[in-house]
Amino acid sequence: MYPIDLSGKTGVVFGVANHRSIAWSIAEILNRAGARLAIAYQNERVRDTVEKLASGLNDPILVECDVSDDANVQEAYETVGAAFGKLDIIVHSIAFAQRDDLGGPFIETGREGFRTAMDISAYSLLPVARYGAPLMTEGGSIIAMTFQASDRIFPGYNVMGTAKAALENEVKHLAYDLGPANIRVNAISAGPLDTLSSRVISHYRDMKRVHAERSPMKRNITAEEVAKTALFLCSDLSSGVSAEIIYVDTGYHVMGI
Ligand code: NAD
Prior knowledge:
The chain has 257 residues and is of the alpha/beta class. The chain has nine helices and seven strands; from the N terminus they run E-H-E-H-E-H-E-H-H-E-H-E-H-H-H-E.
């Protein structure tokens, strides 16, 4: 238990697929801190797994939401609004690219694959913020998940790096748009973690090994460490922090070699 009390707060967490999902680690820690949560999952393929996981949370609601469809996002928030009345926290922990676009030469990325990666991994933060913000009547915190490939080359990460660059830029625009409503928007740039999404990236194992070998702290991060930073960003402790990209990567991002 950490000394942050989110009792009376409500949140929606997008991107739980299984127990390894970063979104799940964040959901667990927010719930333990007292927040009541809506868990938004992509489709019926993951529903049973998500239902089982969520049964361990305190009074959650589950909403199906495919972020490729704005109407679907809007409907999800109608369900959340009807259940909670207001919202304090939104976590966007979603990314997708075609497998073929997560390896080989970046120059070969096709138009359709580029569109898909940008649509799901970057654009989707806009409807998630746009339809969620009106429920944040007492201010709030929106968090997205990013990776240092937004800025540096990690061979294999390819178009997802392009999408993360767009996502980080969106975080700053959204922080500006929503700041007057006391809604803060930040991203966590996490080091490599074994999840469904990361495993399909070619050279992922190398990325993970090199992070552990070369980062200032000489180890990889844990999902719990990402979740603890999310907890900080959702709490009043970070009341002055917005438009920020916070690295949870044992310091790897400062290394030259
Ligand atoms: P994950 O596969 O568990 O989560 C990705 C989620 O995106 C899944 O729940 C999936 O259902 C969801 N998703 C994909 N397309 C969707 C759609 N159309 N509509 C709704 N949901 C959709 O993997 P993860 O590693 O937990 O990824 C979560 C976030 O963290 C992503 O943004 C990822 O880029 C980021 N991230 C991951 C790592 C890592 O090493 N695992 C590092 C840095 C950042």
